[in-house]
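My current task is to audit a protein record that another person submitted. Thanks in advance; the entry in question is below:
***
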Amino acid sequence: MTDAGKRFNRDWIFRNISYTFEKGNSYAIVGPNGSGKSTLLQVLSGSMQLSEGNSQWSIDNRELGNEEIYDHVAICAPYLEVIEEMTLKEFLKFHHHFKPFNPSLDIDSIISIIGLHEAINKQIRYYSSGMKQRVKLAQAIFSDTAFLLLDEPCTSLDAKGIDLYNHLIEEYCKNRLVIVSSNDETEYRFCKKKINITDYKK
């Protein structure tokens, strides 16, 4: 990112961010609720345009066009919904058509890893909020992408769910670029670098 800024109407959410995120590293975007962490993450995902400056992704020194970013980025966020009319297996198969999963795992293995094999044929609408969050984590973490963006990834998770989250990060995210937006250290404790969004409010 170079001189990146985003505003809504006359209010600047952040401004003058110049930062390089590198593959194989993990970053935490921290700050109070409502400070703009999620907005920055959406800009990084390519789903929101900057008001000034620019944001550019590259792989193997090749710059990606805006239309290519989607293929290389997976995101888990509270504002992204799953298709609740589908069963878990139907949803993961549907997602796989648009963003293939890690080739070392099949869908049954993914379901087993996230501990939802007993609910495999139940419509997601009947899942608890914690179970739905496990599904969101699965569709992001197991997607075969170089970049992983996580917005408040432990939302609704109990202690076992948080342990699962830490296991997934350790096991499946070592060689990826991981960016976590959160004000809860539980969610970003593994991150090597920290960016405080309040430093870019001027």
About this structure: The beta strands are 2-8, 11-17, 26-30, 52-54, 58-59, 62-63, 73-76, 147-151, 177-181, 193-196. The two ends are 17 Å apart (CA to CA). Helices lie at 37-45, 69-72, 88-98, 107-113, 129-141, 159-172, 185-188. The CA atoms of residues 23 and 131 lie 30 Å apart.
